[in-house]
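User: Predict the structure for this protein chain, please.
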Amino acid sequence: VLTALDQTWHPEHFFCAHCGNVFGDDGFHERSGKPYCRQDFLAMFAPKCQGCERPVMDNYLSALQGVWHPECFVCAECLSGFAIGSFFELEGRPYCELHFHQRQGSICHGCSRPVTGRCITAAGRKYHPEHFICAYCLGQLQKGTFRERGDKMYCQACHDKLFL
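Assistant: Here is the predicted structure, written as structure tokens:
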């Protein structure tokens, strides 16, 4: 005879309320007055990691309205951790700065880095102002006074010299 949950039980009648297995050395967990084995208790009641959907039992982080195992909280694109501690959110998923900006279409066509400040948009591409330059003389271009040839930008003078 054993006593648990304020009741007396025959050992063979004290089993998991979900799977029906008798409790072994792991003991039991209680929820709403019912006993559960560890596996069922975690599967049914423990919060789930937003990254892997497995139960979170001890070490975790809270972010993006959920809990995460530390090893699961990584960029959704490259799977790298956030060493500097900052991440970007898009559609409920964490991203590193580069992949967030790639998905947003805010990568500089000149240097392939994220455009976070002032931005020039020309020919459907984004540029840092300092990277919006003539492909031939490397002089700074002004919006509206450049010529496009292929996927390259030229100042009026270089364009005329090279192509006319």
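The chain has three helices and twelve strands.
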